[in-house]
Amino acid sequence: MKRLQAIEADHPEWVVSWSPSRRVGHAPISEFRKVVRETPMLSLDNTYSEADLSAWHERVCKGLGGDVPAYVLEPKIDGIGIELYYREGTFELGLTRGDGEKGDDITSNLRTIRSLPLRLGAPVTVTVRGESYVDRADFEVIQRDPEKKTVTGETFKNPRNFAGGTLKRLNPEYVAKQPLKVFLYEVVGDVPTATQFEALAWMRSLGLPVSRDVERFTDFPSLMERVASWETRRDGLPFDADGLVVKVDSFAQREALGATDKSPRWAIAYKFPARQAATKVNGFEVNVGRTGAVTPVAMLDPVALSGTTVSRASLHNWDEVARKDVRVGDTVLVEKAGEIIPQVVTVIVEQRPPGTEPYPIPTRCPSCESPLRRREGEVALRCENREGCTEQLRQSIAFFAQRDAMNIEGLGEKLVAQLVAARLVRDPSDLYQLTAAQLAALDRMGDKSAQNLVENVARSKPQSLTRLLTALGIPLIGEVAAAAVADRFGALATMMEREPSSLREALLEVPGFGDERARAVAEWFGDARNRAVVERLRAAGVDPVAHRRPSTGPLAGKSLCVTGTLARPRDEVKAAIEAAGGRFVSSVGKGTDYLVAGEKTGAAKRTSAEKFGVRVIDEATLERLLRGEAI
Ligand code: IVH
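Above: the input entities. Below: the structure tokens describing the complete assembly.
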């Protein structure tokens, strides 16, 4: 490596993108670029029992007109979904799963992973999907070493958490030092093989790491037997697997089965049963969230559970505490639901020591001591002191600043707490008024960091309208709903200028909006305090304008699918179709208007086009459509 580095220093013109020296990790980056992928990354439906799995098999057979397919059984690696693009054999781009449609460009981080080949065994252009993960043993080493355990104060609960946290770091040099690995399990787009099993072998022959624990089954009963045997076999894997994935082997059959909005019909996840452990409750912690919800967390005697040590367990609300009658001193059964946050399943009443008492439901906010209230129809107990409750304010400011929202770097929870305590920040708009002098006066804050923070805050101003809407913490508005609102209204001003009732009406037209959500958002915008915050944000220059998809244009209302190689890069074609008002879709279905076939088109999409009576056109014809010409 030293020699290589010396040679490359002397001859920069010889350095290739796939040189092993590139793995070391280079300069930090300021933000991950978002990339819109050609084929959205769907997720898998889950099953939790053998009966569910059989029912799924029945549906598959029915969907195939009675044919019984061969299946491939793969471990479901509990890591972070990734997508890799190789152009002519060279690793060029790597994305996170993101929201399925858009992913973060984490190429510089992925490049540092040694099991990820920078160059394939053949000059093929291919997109593959897989998982980045950390072996359990490597994670345990990290956990034992307090130096390594925390990055910016974060503690990682399990290998998956750690892999995710690491891949999202903006410092590839740091990432290069972590024990990340990858496994690949799907080829996207045109595949040179007819089946998944062959595709995996092909990937392996190119040098891509593919799990060894993959098996093909031609009859369902033997598959089921194997599924059952995995219950113990999972412990032998060096990495965490949260289940198995059963996939239809034949790509032609997959194409015939198709997908729903969210997941393919040709694959299903079988989740391993959650693991449980018994431990003692030492006390309760009462948390106040950003919306004022006051929730209980049980503090436990640390106990090992599926590879992690559990010392806290969530109890969703006070009804649950009462219903399960969890008391301090009780021995409880905890399990991991959704793999990460352990939950209290039940109290082992036989082991209850004498003298315990039901845990009293709090009546006052642990942060501001105002009385707690329950809104009609809600289970949550709330602190309604929105203005004066420090904890609520702290949480909502931290939420505003976090990575998925306004992404104000350096504004972590501790600093937020300081800002709130010093009364420098009373709502998100105050962040944009902070001066370096004010910040430098805070405890343990140097001039340099104060200046940096002011700059980072300013840098967040041009964040998208979607992010801003998410960051404001409007009830019932997550990222997806925020994007839809941004698309409909384009700017805050258009929402602010409407009367609440007219805003509510307009919101009802937003995709995915029903009465409840429209009312919640209209109410939020009708509230004088919220309006004042929005106005102050706008005055400070936080007033993004959304780019909207034109609803007019030569392709308005048309949906087009593209297959094969085109003269123009695919993302350019996609952009052109969308700019002309059309929809770019990844698979041919009933509602597709045209299939644009380039060179080297696979048979599968054409077959579907035939089946659904979709018109197949070539690239030249597409260009004419884009110009608004008749074809
Ligand atoms: S196939 C259309 N195979 O599980 C979805 N996914 O819950 C195709 N995963 O997003 C995914 N191991 O990140 C597939 N052998 C495997 C997998 C696997 C883990 C993850 C993947 C996916 C998630 C779905």
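Note for the figure: The chain is about 35% helix and 20% strand.
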